Amino acid sequence: MTIHRNYLFGFMAATLVWSNSLFAQTTDTFDVTITIEDSCELTTPATDMGFGTVQLLNTNYTATSTVSVTCTTDAAYDLALDDGANASATTRRMTDDGTNFVSYRLYSDAAYTTLWGDDTTFGSVNAGTGVGIEQDITVYGRVETGDNATTPPAGAYSDTVTVSVTF
User: How far is the first Cα of the chain from the last one, in angstroms, to the nearest whole number?
Assistant: First the structure.
C-alpha cells in the first residue's frame, strides 16, 4: 500500500507540475492611439437654387440651396461664397448668354438681412462650429425688384457660385 501511495503521490505531483507549466503565461501591454486634427470638408454636393419660371421681375422671388459641411467637433470654420461667374462690381448676376442679366443676392438668414459672400465682396462669410457629423447649411437667395430695373428678354438664366470652407 505504501508503494502504491508513493506512486500515486508522485503521479499527482508530476501532473501538477505538468499542468502548471501548461497554463503558465506572461503578459505585456500596448497602447492604441490616434491623433485627430481639426478638419472640415464639404460633403454632400450642394443643391441647386432654382427660382422657378416667372414672367416679370416686378416682385421679389426667393429660393434656397443647401450646403453640407462636416467638421471635427468644436472646429471653427467659415463658409464662403464667391461672386459667381457673371458678377458685376456691385451684384451677382445670372445670364442667358452673356449679354442679358438677372441680378440676385445670397443671404445666410431666412430674414434676408445678412448678405453672404467671401468677406471681400457681396457680404461676409458664414461662421460655424463643427459638431462631428454633417451639418446642412441653408443658403437663401432672392431676386430683388430693386436690383432689376427692367425685366430682360425671355430665356433661361443661370450662374455658378463656388462655396469653400476654411478652418
Answer: 87
Virtual torsion, Cα 66, 71, 77, 81, nearest 10 deg: -30
The C-alpha atoms of residue 92 and residue 113 are separated, in whole angstroms, by: 16
Taking a C-beta distance cutoff of 8 angstroms, is the pair 137, 69 a contact? yes
CA separation, residue 56 to residues 3, 105, 159 (Å): 117, 18, 19
- Strand duo 126-129 + 40-42: pairing: unpaired
Question: Tens digits of per-residue pLDDT, 16-59?
Answer: 555 555 689 999 999 999 999 999 999 999 999 999 999 999 99
Q: Which pTM was predicted?
A: 0.82
Dihedral sign (CA 105, 109, 115, 119): negative
Q: What CA–CA distance (Å, rounded) separates 74 from 40?
A: 11
d(CA 101, CA 104): 10
Domains and CATH numbers, the chain: 40-166 (2.60.40.1090)
From CA 40, how far away is CA 75, in angstroms rounded? 8
Asked if 77 and 43 touch (Cβ cutoff 8 Å), the reply is no
The alpha carbon of 78 is separated from its chain's Cα centroid by a whole number of angstroms, namely 11
Which set of grid coordinates corresponds to residue 61?
422671388
